[in-house]
Amino acid sequence: MDFGIGFFPTHTALDPGAVAKLVEERGHESLFFAEHTHIPASRETPWPAGKPLPRKYWHCYDLFVALTAAAAATSRLRIGSGICLVTERDPIVTAKEVASLDRLSGGRFEFGVGAGWNREELRNHGTDPRTRMALMRERVEAMKAIWTQDEASYHGTFVEFERIWSWPKPVQRPHPPILVGGEGPTVLDRVLAYGDVWFPNFSDPGDLIRRAEELRARADRPIEVQVISVPAKAEVLERFREAGITRVVRWLPSASRGPVEQALERWEAAVAECNGEA
Q1: Which controlled-vocabulary keywords does the entry list (predicted)?
Q2: How many domains does the chain have?
Q3: CA separation for the pair 66, 64 (Å, rounded)
């Protein structure tokens, strides 16, 4: 099981390149950056966590700019989107950004995708929240066509283009891993339809493990399960390892170096205990 880090890259915190360099130097396997283009001031849609929404949600750097800085500052670290809101992005532009980042990083990019929870945010991008799942599927499928075909076409309800040329192509073949976020009742259907990995937020470990077993039973190809927002508790890590979870990711605070290093130390202590090194 691999151990990774999640981070909201904001202009008020340790900068993305410095975070990435620190995470790599301390031996972690991966780093995932969150994305929000903005947060509507109306705040009509409640945050799923049920608390006041943290300010970091509307102070993020652009996802791909931050990831490029992380790639440039490192040489081994896997870098990923945790998650990219493809329902708020043009698929042709996003396909080029993904392919460009994968090439510039030497094939180290992991493409976490999600449909989004904030209905006003989606509407500001011209997306109907009621059809966002279908839209996400078409945009991911269209990007796959662009990455894998010299002359790509896609014909769907929401995405439509005929015979386009787009380079570069990703280093990873056939494309970077698609990590499908979400914990809803139909998320496994989406993973099976177009994902390589199920990438849920941490919730009840027993329920996650049960659903992971269901996913494996339904799948006709290898599909990994990785979990983000995992607590720094060795017993949780041990349970996930025994269940075949392939990666666990811990969020760090969007803060200066001191608090970031302190949070890393707590995570590393839990990892060491899980690995029998404490």
Answers
A1: Flavoprotein, FMN, Monooxygenase, Oxidoreductase
A2: 1
A3: 5
